[in-house]
């Protein structure tokens, strides 16, 4: 490679290495999603059960089961209607916080959206 490219690669390498530990440290035990994560309901479970999203994220749930499910916030911030197979529900989170939710038809089904 031309000398100037090689020097540029050397200069960039330390910065990339320095960023690595920070990225690992910031990685939580739960799923960190994009601003538009998709949560799939399957086998009476929200998958993933917990997502971490930025403020302004729109989370979409899709029902992959062959029985109806709902998505209802514990504090009633959102409440879908009963979703049949392949139906979707979306909610945009405009404030930081921890949003616990459940399926009102099967209250043992629970999930959490953490908005940062
Ligand atoms: Cu359900």
Description:
- The strands form two sheets. This protein has a five-stranded mixed beta sheet with strand order 1-4-9-8-6, with no helix packed on it. Strands 3-2-5-7 form a four-stranded mixed beta sheet, with no helix packed on it.
- The chain is of the alpha/beta class and 116 residues long.
- The termini are far apart.
- It is globular, with a radius of gyration of 20 Å.
- The protein has one helix and nine strands.
- The chain has one helix at residues 3-26; strands at residues 31-32, 38-42, 45-47, 50-53, 58-63, 72-73, 88-92, 97-102, 110-115.
- The protein has a single domain (28-115), classed as Cupredoxins -  blue copper proteins (Immunoglobulin-like, Sandwich).
- The relative contact order is 0.18.
- The longest helix has 24 residues, at 3-26.
- Residues 69, 103, 105-106, 109 line the site of copper (II) ion.
Strand and helix layout:
Blueprint: H1 3-26, E1 31-32, E2 38-42, E3 45-47, E4 50-53, E5 58-63, E6 72-73, E7 88-92, E8 97-102, E9 110-115
Parallel strand pairs: 1-4, 2-5, 4-9
Antiparallel strand pairs: 2-3, 5-7, 6-8, 8-9
The protein binds copper (II) ion.
Short account of what is shown:
With 116 residues, the chain is α/β, with parallel strands linked by helices. Helix content is 21%, strand content 34%.
Intertermini distance: 43 Å
The total of helices stands at 1
Helical percent range?
A: 10-25%
CATH class: Mainly Beta
Q: Number of domains in the coordinates?
A: 1
CATH superfamily membership, which one? Cupredoxins -  blue copper proteins
Q: What ligand molecules are bound, each kind once?
A: copper (II) ion
The CATH topology turns out to be Immunoglobulin-like
Helix-strand topology string:
HEEEEEEEEE
What's the mean pLDDT score?
A: 82
The best one-word shape is globular
Number of strands: 9
Largest sheet: 5 strands, mixed
Strand order of the largest sheet: 1-4-9-8-6
* Strand residues, percent: 25-35%
Tell me the Rg in angstroms: 20 Å
Low-confidence stretches: 1-29
- At CATH level 2, the architecture is Sandwich
Overall structural class, as computed from helix and strand content, comes to alpha/beta
